[in-house]
Amino acid sequence: MAAMSDLDIPESFRGRPYAERHFRQIAQWARVHSPFYRHFHAEGGVPPLLTREILQAHNDELLNGQAVTGKTSGATSVPVRVHWGAPRSRLDHKDNLSYAGWFGGVLPHAKIVALSAHEKKDNSFEVASPVTQQLAFLNERIHRYGARSLISYPTNLVQLAVHLKQSGQTVPGLERLVCMSELFESSQEACIAEAFPNARIAATYSCTETGMIAGRCPHNPDNYHIMAHKLGVEFLNADGRPCAEGEVGQIVITDYVNRAMPFIRYAIGDLAAPVRCDCGQIDLPALTRLLGKQRGLLRHPDGHYVFSTELSPHIRDSAEVRQYQVIQQAPARFLLRVIAREGAETTAFERHMQELFTRHFGATTELAFDWCTDIPRLPGGKYMEFVGLKDPA
């Protein structure tokens, strides 16, 4: 098989020796050794994008007889099955330790996560438990076992913070909060910081398929530094061309290391923009404006995306709302699930929401309300505030 030329390298990597070399190595290896890539990339040239739908349809072929070592949470109804060898797992563990080093090193920690997706240990607790039980567990880990860090989902940290604020309490004993799995939004920071006044907020951006992709910069929190030693990350606009700095596009990832189950130009469905971080402390490329899943976005009836950030502040910051979820049932039909605060007056809120959705989706928009007492998380622990047309409710 002929060696790859410069024209076989994605435009984003050309002129970048490290990226060119490692992309060429994994792509050539996959075309020889992976049954899937032998036909998917048979014609040469730049490898086509591996979408989530293609991956799901050819998951067995990509696994190529390897044991399943991980599964996605199933946010697209069909979980992706993944294989990592021991060296790849060790590399990701090393990256997580390295990221902790950006904040001063590993701290004794407590973990509040979905135990259906994470190993149960003495320092871990079920995220679906009532808030009061979570806080009792956390306080015990702090006072009896010296925990100085809490690892959980951003939405759960907000839930804990709201409860603490309403009861006039804070948790001053923590030095660090680590947000995992879900997208951490800057709008969540003030609420969390008020309840945990001495804790710095770290956040990782990762996926089951490729592990840790980037970590929030401790010096410039708007940016996330990319694990570029193991991953090639492209940002592509609607025309499939590399984005300019600050321009939001779809994230496409190549895993340079995982030869057991190659992920080459994997379009994971997330959106962000490339950026040069000015922190001067971490010598890695960066991304910013991390907007999360395309599949979690809502669509206007004319077809364009409506970003959750255009709606979420108006819903989340309403005095009536403790928790919510927006489900798009049709292009102009929505269900808004709401867990109300005690004593909430709902009429004005419903009128305000109807105006909000009409403004963003048009005059024919239908909006129904479900005032409920519980909104479940996905099996892997993630909580979806916005459920698009193709997402599970």
Nutshell version of this structure?
The chain is of the alpha/beta class and 393 residues long.
Description:
This protein is α/β, with parallel strands linked by helices. The protein has 3 domains: 6-83 and 224-271, no CATH class; 89-207, 3-Layer(aba) Sandwich (Rossmann fold); 298-387, GMP Synthetase, Chain A, domain 3 (2-Layer Sandwich). It is built from 10 helices and 20 strands. The strands form 4 sheets. Strands 1, 4, 5, 6, 7, 8, 9, 10, 11, 12, 13 and 14 form a 12-stranded mixed β-sheet that branches. Helix 7 packs across helix 8 (189-195). The radius of gyration is 22 Å and the shape is globular. It starts with 16 loop residues before the first helix and ends in a 6-residue tail after the last strand. The mean pLDDT is 91.
Proportion of helical residues: 25-40%
Helix count from the secondary structure assignment: 10
β-strand number: 20
Q: Mind describing the biggest β-sheet?
A: 12 strands, mixed
SS strand fraction: 25-35%
Structure classification: alpha/beta
The succession of helices and strands, N to C, reads HHEHHEEHEEHEHEHEEEEEEEEEHEEHEE
Estimated radius of gyration: 22 Å
Enumerate the spans where pLDDT stays under 50 for 5 or more consecutive residues. Answer: none
Topology:
Layout: H1 17-33, H2 35-40, E1 50-51, H3 52-57, H4 59-63, E2 70-71, E3 81-82, H5 86-102, E4 109-113, E5 124-126, H6 131-145, E6 149-152, H7 154-166, E7 176-179, H8 189-195, E8 200-207, E9 211-216, E10 223-226, E11 231-236, E12 249-255, E13 266-275, E14 286-293, E15 298-299, E16 305-306, H9 312-316, E17 321-330, E18 333-340, H10 346-361, E19 366-371, E20 386-387
Parallel strand pairs: 1-13, 4-5, 4-6, 6-7, 7-8, 17-20, 18-19
Antiparallel strand pairs: 2-3, 8-9, 9-10, 10-14, 11-12, 12-13, 13-14, 15-16, 17-18
